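Dear Dr. H.,

I hope your travels went smoothly. While you were away I took the liberty of generating a structure for the chain from your last submission, since the lab meeting agenda had it listed for discussion. I wanted you to have the full record in hand beforehand rather than looking at slides cold. The sequence, exactly as received, is reproduced here:
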Amino acid sequence: MKLMVLVSLGEFIGRFHPLVVHLPIGFFVLAILLEWFQKDSNKNSQKMVAFSWLLSALSATAASFCGWLLAASGSYPEQGLFWHRWMGILLSLISFGMWWIKKNPSIIPKKSHAILNVFVLLLLTLAGHQGGNLTHGSGYLTEHAPGFIQKITGTQTSLTVGLPQISDPDSALVYQDLIQPIFAQKCMACHNDEVQRGGLNMATPEKLLAGGNGGPVLVAGNARESEIFKRLLLPHTSEKHMPTKGEPMTFQEIQMLEWWIEEDASFENKASDLPIPDRVKPILASLYRMDTEPKPWYEKVKIAPAPVEVLAQLAEESFTIRQLSAENHLLEVSFNGNTISQEQLEQLAPLKAHITWLDLADKGLQDEGIELLGSFSNLTRLRIQQNPISDQGLSYLQPLTHLASLNVFGTELTDASLETIRALPALEKVYLWQTEVSQSAVADLKKERPELDIDIGALVQN
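The corresponding predicted structure, in token form, is as follows:
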């Protein structure tokens, strides 16, 4: 019990260190300024300089004593603490030496006094910098420095860099790409491998899950019961409000954190794996330039350019070929002749992974040719209207899992073809007018696939 009382008393006294440490700093500066700006080097002025150094020595000793007790609490990293502690003690000893020298200024050359003064200022600056790192983190001094200074010192911070801009929403990891950058800006200065305020280290997911002195700070699936979230909602005047320094979390950042925790606070999930509420979508767009609207398949596919010799050969066979863009190597293909033969159609086979838009409308396409098209894995838009195509021919398209638009008006399709249409998972729009498909069969399909836009002519089912 006595030991616990002594430990508690030591920590109580140690916490006066931030208060006491400013006294020697002021006295150091005062002593040096008195010496540098005194007009007459008389005994009285020398006594004032010496007395200032004595006050520096006594207050530095008190600050070192309080700092030693504060360090014993274990709240600071040992590596940075070692240098700060011993530089503080060295300053105390040097101050007593300076007091003795200033009482007897003639014992060393006059130039040596100026050198000693500069040395003390440098040592004081270095010790203060170390103390700032211990308290606020190693990036505190340069956190808001101009970019060119951060570049020179190699201390560019996440605050300067800003939140990441997500170019590929489908691959964005919720924690790594969206949440952790917020923590890096607003929390990591006080909760890292060097500084663990409240015993909390947020440097890795494992350390974050371990929590702090009060236990876990995350309750997966329940933001309101998570200590890390509750602290954000406290009034800024509360000593428990987080973050304690710097810019507070914005309303948008708090909502991002709430969404992440409510979705089980996973460290592995992609954003595309989770439901994104309407309130979160504009935040993702604003903070990360992240477009959460579903993109068509052809914008997601990454593929090497088609062989130039194949493209040249197809151009000679009356095919028109257009690459979607300089960055997207998928192709739009159409046939310019009157009737396409099976041999001509098979010449497209080497490009079956490249063709995403295909127009073979009114080209005499037979069921046999449709079977080949079923292997065009990246096909998203297909125009095969006004061709003698049957229900059996259309069934060959079932492997096309990315087909979004299908035009089959003016063909021989019947209600049986709707089984194939029903089985196409990505289909958004289908044109069925001037076919044998009945309105009642279309109505039944719409009940199963209400999102599917089916055009049967004069009566449009939406």
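Two observations you may find useful: The CA atoms of residues 136 and 170 lie 36 Å apart. The radius of gyration is 37 Å.

With kind regards,
E. W.
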